Batch of 2 targets.
Target 1
Amino acid sequence: MTHVSIRELTKVYPGSADPALDGLSLEIPTGELTALLGPSGCGKTTTMKMIAGLLAPTSGDIHFDGRSVLSEKPEHRGVVMVFQNYLLFPHMNVADNVGFGLKMRKVPKQEIDHRVKEMLELVKLPDLGDRQPSALSGGQQQRVALARALIVQPNVLLLDEPLSNLDAHLRFEMRDLIRGLQQEMGITTIFVTHDQEEAVVLADKVALILDGRLKQYGPADVFYKRPVDEATARFFGGQNFASGTSDGSVFKSGLGQLKLPDGVNPGPGKLTVRPENIRINAGENMQNSLQAVVTERVFLGTQTLVKLQVGNEKLDAIANPNEVENISVGDSVTISLPPSSLWVLST
Ligand code: ATP
């Protein structure tokens, strides 16, 4: 049970001009699951290694429950890190792998056996204690790695892309398992991923890192409704941006004059609306209704992407396939951009 406070954490690798991580500050409350989200090379693993004590920061600090841990050795921090390639000991069977941390702590054998059995049940591998890691599937190895991490009841659990080597079906199962165990045990957990969907599904809060800098930190829905800038909106699937000016209640752009929700500041900016919030074939008297021409439609399986032209502006809309089955390329349609779905990014 540990509150993790990351303060202005910076890492410049020797010989490198740019920081791999630049002034990251995050407060991670006890028992929460936070996702560090970002594209490859943005500094996620560097952050995890500094929290684990495997890498020294260039500047900044890390506090656990109010005390700096920078001078503490990795083994004294109570942090366990699970890597994406599992790293099980190949010469030990599953039970010995899971019990390893307890053996190192000189826990009596009888208690180790009991806790290993309990842990294997929790990760749903009750009968595999005698197997060698080489005789396990990737998903099973990942569960053993998780069991081995959790059995020592760490203060902080770090998961570095733990699902990236698993196929889609196993990924769903592991997500549920990780979320369930994390909530049951209440362990403060930091989870690295480049997959925004995974971050959204698993995390209490998401920290989006781009080019070594924190862009935004908060509950997942805020990234969809109130992204801080265009790069953040794009990372979460935002595709529609129109430059213009707000007078505080109306936004003027190539899309015409659109009524804004309350709370938008006056001034120049970029209007954004998520593809799934554009209503197609909305009634003429809906708020913010516009005439658009359909330029393309792409069937995505459970949804249809409809590309639209409004004057000189382009918009992408995502709709339920049933709702747009009678719409063809070249059709003129009435669309509506409900004021509550609009958001203006400052430029
Ligand atoms: P990925 O998702 O691909 O694992 P990441 O977000 O975890 O990426 P990091 O591994 O933290 O990114 O790397 C951040 C930056 O630091 C990258 O530009 C990387 O090339 C650089 N870097 C990482 N490790 C070292 C190192 N030991 N020496 C020099 N540069 C490094």
Note: The chain has two domains: 4-225, 238-346.
Target 2
Amino acid sequence: MKKHSLSKKLFSQAKKVIPGGVNSPVRAFRAVGGNPLFIEKAKGSRIFDVDGNSYIDYVLSWGPMILGHAHPRVVAALKKATEKGTSYGAPTSLEIELAELVLKVYPAMDKVRMVNSGTEATMSAIRVARGFTGRDKVVKFEGCYHGHADGLLVKAGSGATTFGVPDSPGVPKSYAQNTITLPYNDIPALTRMVEKEWRKIACVIIEPVVGNIGCVLPKPGFLEALRKLTRKHGIVLIFDEVMTGFRVSFGGAQAYYGIKPDMTCLGKVIGGGLPVGAYGGKKEIMSMVSPEGPVYQAGTLSGNPLAMTAGIETIKELLRPGLYAAMEKRSAMLEEGLKDAAKRAGAKTRFYRAGSMFCTYFTDTDVRDYGTAKKADTGKFSRFFTGMLERGINLAPSQFEAGFMSLAHTEKDIDATVTAAYEAIKKI
Ligand code: KE4
């Protein structure tokens, strides 16, 4: 049994000064029981807790650490950048460099604005879509999580689902009234709603692959139908690629599925582990954004030089030939291994993957939306999670989250993960 005495001590200290002892709810292990690990450091595919235990890490800071932790190229660049100051509140060439890189990889966008989180990106994109169309309503899908902006905490996923508050207290009814939620992958429901309400709908925002109820894939034709319907009625289609960007493929889900959204939100990977979010779109939409246009959006640390540096180095590293092929190979190896381990251990599971994001559900039902995801056996997942942690494997502490692969994970790491999974599943 691993020792966790210092993590336990720190957690009780943290709870005295921070709500729930954490700065983001899913970190508190509430869904899986036990105390959260307090982390000392991380390197490559591994993360080390304050009690000296080490784990192969598939959380990767919830997606950003696609190169692996503390990549030498990123660390060296950050050290140099820090010596030049940490923030100026004035434009720098770094912001142009990251914007140009992002626009090259996401050609559906003509312009992009940097912010500090995925929440800011989606919140701002929706404001711009409302400003551009003059309409108020927003369509989202049950279980999709787009950050914690008021109007989006309606039937939301991720921690909101984990803690059973998909419609959070504190969100005024008047906000929620402008949010229409539909079942994911349900084309008839989508068509009925849009054909009826399109005159009031400013935008549809979607996770093109849902990473916040585990991992749910769009069924064939769903994204195409969404694109066609929104184009027909002048509704802004926003792809929330905060998680899927650079993850499902280098060009995100939009490249993978060949759909051109009107706006895209990014985050996580483009900050290389530092706080960065971004939203962008066609020039006629983005010309609405202040100071070019009338829709206001601002941020003291937007385009922060350290965050830009980490993002630039991460994306430049990802541009190197063959990296995505290598990541695909390892992700496929993990998929095969985990499926086989569950079968050998005699457990009913479903495994879904899009590029290097994935999820194992403890269920014998195909998972294709919020309703079917919620049928998973969260008790079994919790025992699996704890068993994997005890065997040195760090998974997301909730059935309703995705796992991530990095370029630092070796075949040895994957073999160890599969062995641990067989033993952990056997025990639950
Ligand atoms: P942030 O505000 O947390 O940077 O991004 C919000 C967000 C927006 N859109 C998508 C598709 C997202 O997945 C997220 C954030 N993802 C969660 C993980 N499910 C972040 C982890 C957390 O809340 O601590």
Note: The chain has a mean pLDDT of 96.
